[in-house]
Amino acid sequence: MMQAFPDLIYEPVTMGTTLIAVQFKGGVAIAADSRSAMGTYVSNRVANKITQITDYIYCCRAGSAADTQTLAEVVQYELDFYEREIGQQPTVRAAANVLRGLCYEYRDRMTASIICAGWDRQTGGQIYNISAGGSLVPQRIAASGSGSLYITGFLDSQYRPDMTKEECAELCLKAVSLAIKRDGSSGGVCRLAVITEDGVEKRMIPNDQLPQF
After folding, report:
1. Which of 39, 64, 87, 148 sits at 20 to 30 Å (Cα–Cα) from 3?
2. How far apart are CA 185 and CA 128, in angstroms?
3. pLDDT by residue (tens digit) across 55-84?
4. 68 is annotated as an active-site residue
5. Whole-prediction pTM
């Protein structure tokens, strides 16, 4: 196939994407689109950009697919080792700090932007936005990726700290749908996960069932 597209041979698979995380009392809701590309060529329409780190901690990945997949695997290993050695589950902030450290250490060799979100017994639901340079910012609501440019104002206007789990999930779904309609690098289905003390609820909403505006 690549012989038919010679300009794509040296193009890495990237995820110009839409990532969203919203905090509510008792947990967090996270969502992402599913398009990945090699330059202008759409290489995968149903990529999964939401990766499990521990039972209660997930990361949403934007940037180079290879870089962010490897990054997630390294953090999975380190936190699994921590849990076995210490005998307790790592906190969301601990996971975010490991991700931040790796993003900073390899900032010149890696293209990665991460939202780390989850729940722990110490603090409850948390969201940390980790930039490509390695900065870490705790937020109640986070958006990342190319599609975030089109929905930041919408999220700011619609979010309330007292929103329910269902309202946050619906807000994530609407925001991803809006981004897909405006951002040429976002597309495919919407993957949604809601993380609480009771566990993780996952949903996949096909493109033709996304909210219409």
Report:
1. 64
2. 23
3. 999 999 999 999 999 999 999 999 999 999
4. no
5. 0.91
